[in-house]
Design brief:
alpha+beta; Tat pathway signal sequence; UstYa-like
Length: 253
């Protein structure tokens, strides 16, 4: 079976009333007619775009164990699929009040009055780590279909999006190099991948911060028709489908 046979149907975001998709294929967020786009972001100098999120520390303060296996490595179709399917990358779409954006020198982004009664515009951002998770989750779904010879799920995109995701993950790794030296014991397959004293940034703090400023958005590309029916999915106003949390482990990797 050729790989291309699994990815021919076009990727389609769920439509909503008075909603257009963003012009950039890299940004997975719906645009409404009330949103205002900033033309200045790409014209700003690098030093003018240095932002500060006071609630989030850049210190690697959390001790985490990197295990060789986890629910995410399971070849059991039910367990492995459930672990990956529960990840909600849309948790990384945040809506920051304009006053917060200006106070912390954050670059302008799409601006909208997200909720009725908003006293100031909210600027929409997709946290990069969640963007990479979206890519990884989608690539895993593609590989899983190939590995088990399953029919391609209708929500999976054409080739251009996976190739974008491969390169986005590459760039993310190069921008965030990990200098940990992993011991090699009796060959690659015997390497000690367990690092009990690994120091990490605080993902739980990031999750909580994203929850505080959530953009009322759910990355729904992996929802089946049955799941949408069970959760009473709102096809008209997609912003009513938001669920708390990101589906990732708490206090561990």
């Amino acid at each position: 079976m050729r790989f291309t046979t699994l990815v021919e149907p076009l990727y389609k975001m769920i439509p909503a009333i008075d909603v257009e998709t963003l012009p950039s294929p890299e940004v997975l967020y719906h645009r409404r007619s009330s949103e205002v786009w900033s033309d200045s972001y790409h014209d700003q100098k690098k030093e003018d775009r240095e932002s500060n999120i006071p609630e989030l520390s850049l210190e690697r303060s959390q001790t985490r164990r990197i295990a060789r296996t986890s629910p995410f490595t399971s070849r059991n179709v039910t367990d492995g699929n459930e672990a990956w399917h529960n990840i909600l990358p849309g948790h990384g779409v945040v809506a920051l009040p304009e006053s917060y954006v200006k106070k912390n020198n954050i670059p302008d982004s799409t601006a909208t009055h997200l909720y009725e009664g908003d006293t100031e515009p909210k600027h929409i951002y997709f946290i990069e780590s969640y963007h990479v998770l979206h890519c990884l989750r989608m690539l895993r779904s593609l590989y899983h279909s190939m590995d088990y010879g399953l029919p391609k799920e209708p929500y999976l995109p054409p080739l251009d999006h996976p190739y974008h995701c491969f390169d986005r993950i590459r760039q993310f790794i190069m921008c965030n190099p990990d200098y940990t030296l992993v011991p090699n014991i009796a060959g690659h397959d015997k390497s000690d991948w367990t690092q009990p004293n690994k120091k990490c940034l605080d993902w739980d703090a990031l999750r909580d911060w994203a929850e505080k400023y959530h953009g009322n958005y759910m990355d729904d590309f992996a929802l089946s028709a049955k799941e949408k029916e069970e959760m009473v999915y709102d096809e008209v106003n997609i912003y009513n489908n938001y669920r708390k949390g990101d589906g990732l482990p708490v206090g561990q990797l």
